[in-house]
Amino acid sequence: MNILVTGGAGFIGANYVRQVLDAGGDRIVNLDALTYAGNLENLAGYDENPDYRFVRGDIRDRDLLDALFAEERIEAVVNFAAESHVDRSIDGPREFLEANIMGTQCLLEAARQAGVARFLQVSTDEVYGSLGAEGLFTEASPIQPNSPYAASKAAADLVCRAYFHTYGFPVLITRCSNNYGPYQFPEKLIPLMIANALEDRPLPVYGDGRNVRDWLYVADHCSAIDTVLRRGTPGEVYNIGGCNEMENIAIIRRLLGLLEKDESLITYVTDRPGHDRRYAIDASKIERDLGWTPAHRFDDGIAATVAWYLDNRSWWESVRDGTYQSYYDRMYGAEGRHGSS
Ligand code: NAD
Ligand code: TYD
Q: How far is the CA of 105 from the centre of ligand 2 (A)?
């Protein structure tokens, strides 16, 4: 298949591009605006792959999309592109609404006009809002987003639904729980805590540290997306999760143990406004209908993740000091190996 991946220079998108190219048999065009979260080093080594093309651009650029759909004969779209960090959405909601909602609508419309056969929207369990101590999110749970990020993802998700019902456009929607693994930007809980601990800096724990997230290794999210893309039923929503609920403080203690760092680094700070208490996913539909199950146990995934951050210190240091943003100019700028693009 000729697949347009958007946001493929980010955390999950880059893991997905790697997984699909490593498996072989598909061509990927990766369209990414390279916001602060996009990092082409996440795909270093893939630039020479004949089945891969990187294009810097925004999913709100309709002319660019029309040109790409035509010249690359795109058959399927996987839309990862989004502003993705809850704390940033609290500080500045507007860009979240513009990129996540209007961006998705622009991409949907261009894909529909081009006659694309499959459109997968990478949504999130955060569209469901927050759970109490009991229960799980199912695909039928009410959509009750609580942060500007979650609201923007919920709106995008519902616009996708409308494109299926109104135009018969073959949309698939996935709603996954929290991911962790290699290449995650060190503003999210797990990589932030690893990087801070390695630099003996305080680990900021919001509120009482007892908020619960349902953690899934990123490679498992990617394999689930690929399963839905190829075998899911258009118009359907698929929850994705690993049945792995943990309190934040338990994760942090586990990381400190793996890194052999002292718990005195733990620092309780003011809670996030509107902080969702608990997320937990019922993923029985994708397991039953498509035969997908996660391949990684949390113990193995978190150990592999810690090992990756230890082995790739220069990656997260260049993210923290901002030098990663020069990669595009080095590789694709006028003087770079691939010339201007
Ligand atoms: P990320 O922030 O690491 O990456 C987002 C990527 O999208 C970046 O490369 C960025 O440059 C690009 N981008 C942003 N706006 C763009 C635009 N307007 N046009 C083109 N590219 C743009 O995010 P992530 O954690 O990899 O998440 C990817 C997707 O998965 C998001 O849609 C997110 O909502 C969803 N998701 C994430 C998680 C998680 O735990 N991280 C869980 C479920 C769903
Ligand atoms: P995060 O990684 O931002 O993901 P999300 O909010 O989308 O679930 O946060 C995961 C959990 O960790 C969430 O309950 C907030 C908490 N958290 C902290 O306690 N401290 C931090 O510095 C961060 C970034 C998150």
A: 28
Q: Of ligand 1's atoms, which has the minimum distance to the CA of residue 14?
A: 26
Which tokens go with 69?
């759909």
User: Angle CA(310)–CA(312)–CA(317) in degrees, nearest 5?
Assistant: 100
Task: Tell me the torsion sign for CA atoms 314, 327, 8, 54.
Answer: negative
How does pLDDT run across 21-74, given as a tens digit for each residue? 999 999 999 999 999 999 999 999 999 999 999 999 999 999 999 999 999 999
141-184 tens-digit pLDDT: 999 999 999 999 999 999 999 999 999 999 999 999 999 999 99
Which residues form ligand 2's pocket by a CB distance below 6 Å?
A: 86, 178, 188-189, 192, 204-206, 211, 213, 248, 272
Residue 149 is among the residues annotated as catalytic for this protein = yes
2-179+217-243+278-296+322-340 classified as CATH 3.40.50.720: yes
